[in-house]
Amino acid sequence: MAGDVVRRCSDRRLSRSMHYCRVMSNNPVTEEQVRPTVQSVDRAAAILEILARNGETGVTELAAELGVHKSTAFRLVAALEQRDLVEQHAGRGKYRLGTGILRLAGATTSRLDLVQESRDVSRRLALRTGETVNIAVLSDGAALYMDQVAGSSALQPHNWVGQRIPLHATSNGKILLSSMERTEVARQVPTLRSYTANTITTLDGLMRELDQVRTWGHAVAIDELEVGLTAIAAAIRNTRGEVVASMSISGPTFRLDARRVPQMADAVMGAAHEVSRRLGWSG
Q: Using one digit for the tens of pLDDT, what is the confidence trace for 238-256?
């Protein structure tokens, strides 16, 4: 029974991998081509789990536990060592988890800290303004929404949590780009897709907008991603003053009109500053 479950799980992973390869390439992909890669990933992950459990383990023991030849285990460990995910104890010759694990865990922890430290501030901001409050971070050329608190005016707010949205057409995205040089902005946003008649579609136009963002201390997007949607955002900074996230207020354009935008900008800048202080920024 256990073997059948493992085989079914492996088959599902293999099917997904083959589908991905077919999408990304015009060449046909066979099961024989994909299966070794899937097995290698599974075995590398198993090595990390073994080292996490045992502390230190030699290649011979790893090979025995994985059920593979010692040379196979050594190649897997060597690949993980190149990424600093494992390291060899100089005196004993055994392997243990490396500092690369701390780097990966730190990235996850920092995002969890961000959500935890911003939640109460977001709730107060949503209560004060009546509008929806979002927290976003940079993720592979997009703004990834980490948290959302709906305000009293939002009857059925769209849930953005977990979604990745374009950087150039949103207030959160503009904040996340605001500390970057032109070359980095171009790398993050190689194509400026048009979503509405108000979307910025040239790099020069985007850089002028980012200059204003730095001057004002906040970003505004009116009908740029969706007609009828307005958002105002400000930067959340870490202990070094780096922009690590963005906090925004969003709502219908008819409600966030020219009269309310300055008020909302002051409110979101104050809230983002408070979150920044909670994360250790003293500026």
A: 888 899 999 999 999 999 9
Distance separating alpha carbons of residues 93 and 96, to the nearest angstrom: 10
- CATH node for 2-97: 1.10.10.10
Second-level CATH architecture of 104-278: 2-Layer Sandwich (3.30)
Cα dihedral 262, 259, 163, 117, rounded to 10, equals 40
Contact status, residue 94 vs residue 88, Cβ threshold 8 Å: yes
Residue 19 CA: distances (Å) to CA of 93, 205, 232: 40, 39, 40
Return all residues near 117 (Cβ < 8 A) that are at least 6 apart.
Answer: 275, 278, 279
In this predicted model, what pLDDT tens digit does every residue of 150-209 receive, in sequence order? 887 765 556 778 888 999 999 999 999 999 999 999 999 999 999 999 999 999 999 999
Could you report the per-residue pLDDT of 175-184, keeping only the tens digit for each? Answer: 999 999 999 9
Q: Is the C-alpha dihedral spanning 80, 86, 87, 93 positive or negative?
A: negative
The per-residue pLDDT of the chain, averaged, comes to: 82
User: Which residues of 113-257 form beta strands (DSSP E)?
Assistant: 132-138, 143-149, 164-165, 219-222, 229-237, 243-252
- For 99, the token pair is 């500092």
Alpha carbons 262 and 145: distance in angstroms, whole number = 24
CA angle, 130 as apex, 126 and 132 as ends, to 5°?
Answer: 55
List the domain boundaries for the chain.
2-97, 104-278
